[in-house]
Specification:
The chain contains seven helices and 15 strands. The protein is of the alpha+beta class and about 300 residues long. The strands form three sheets. Strands 4-3-5-6-7-8-9-10 form an eight-stranded mixed β-sheet, sandwiched between helices. A five-stranded mixed β-sheet has the order 12-11-13-15-14, sandwiched between helices. It has a two-stranded antiparallel sheet with strand order 1-2. Helix 1 packs antiparallel against helix 2 and helix 5 runs parallel beside helix 6. The chain starts with about 25 loop residues before the first helix and ends in an 11-residue tail after the last helix. The N terminus is likely disordered.
Length: about 300
């Protein structure tokens, strides 16, 4: 079970230069993506305008046209960073694995251009841009995490070893101390949710289904949720950024029922759970044992 002590957090600043691709101005790029995506959403109001599909993404889900446009915005900024001399490999929900440069090194950029697509399509406010930058192949190697919640216009950011921020203010995983008063549940189909609800009966006071794993993890980071858990196994793009934000804020996060030793490849699936402390995490992990198991890896 992964634990991380809380750190003093300065205001969010661009990653210092001199660290290869990790020295790029990632935060500036993330913020430009948000501005362009907000303009896209404003130009496509209404459910009908957002319910056009364009095939199947590399992650295996049907792809909305607005998903594609959001991803185009992200990749335009990645191209800009590459043109500045930075090499990396992007792992995206829609395009899959895309190298930027022949010598991309070990830097991975894990992208969910629209986490909470159903919410966005149905004009529900909780959807996000979620991007992580990693120096290696596992969740433990994530160096930067960025989640922008478009519903609340809030920016969550974390740098490994330097803490987490919400709109440039220090973010702490501290709740009121009432145990599992509010628990987030993701992938909330009834047949997936009911076994988890039964397991949490008498242990959790209220459940909330946001519809975005990245936002739910950020809510744990800020103490809005005492814990969160998935009812369906997720992909790296869903959780890579949010898990770093939660850990850097002082929360505890576990993948596949244990720690952070899971890969970032798009074809992998695993459950994620997070909580304000180890005791609360143990309770939701016990409940998560009743969740739908992840699919077997192909091949």
């Amino acid at each position: 079970m992964a634990a991380m002590s809380r750190r003093q957090t300065p205001q969010a600043q661009p990653t210092p230069a001199g660290r290869g691709a990790l020295g790029a101005d990632w935060l500036g790029a993330f913020r430009r993506m948000v501005t362009a995506q907000r303009e896209l959403f404003d130009a496509n109001p209404g459910i009908a305008a957002r319910t056009a599909y364009e095939g199947i993404g590399e992650g295996g889900d049907r792809t909305l046209a607005i998903d594609r446009r959001c991803e185009d915005i992200v990749f335009a900024e990645l191209e800009r960073l590459h043109a500045e001399g930075h090499g990396f490999i992007a792992i995206s929900e829609e395009r899959g694995e895309v190298p930027f440069g022949e010598d991309a090194g070990n830097t991975l950029v894990i992208v969910d251009p629209l986490d909470g697509s159903l919410n966005a399509r149905r004009m529900l406010p909780s959807h996000s841009l979620s991007i992580a930058v990693a120096s290696g192949p596992t969740m433990a190697d994530v160096e930067l995490g960025f989640v922008h919640d478009f519903g609340s216009s809030e920016e969550y950011f974390a740098r490994r070893g330097a803490g987490a921020t919400l709109d440039d203010r220090e973010l702490r995983a501290e709740g009121p101390g009432y145990g599992l008063e509010v628990v987030g549940i993701e992938s909330a189909k009834p047949e997936r949710t009911i076994p988890l609800l039964r397991a949490l009966a008498g242990k959790a006071y209220r459940m909330r289904a946001v519809g975005s794993i990245a936002i739910s993890l950020a809510y744990v980071a800020g103490g809005r949720f005492d814990a969160m858990l998935t009812g369906r196994a997720c992909r790296s793009v869903d959780a890579a950024a949010g898990q770093l934000i939660a850990r850097e804020a002082g929360a505890e996060v576990a993948f596949a029922g244990s720690g952070l030793d899971v890969g970032l490849d798009l074809d992998l699936r695993y459950h994620v759970a997070a909580a304000l402390d180890g005791e609360l995490l143990a309770t939701v992990l016990e409940a998560q044992e009743n969740a739908e198991p992840p699919p077997e890896p192909e091949g």
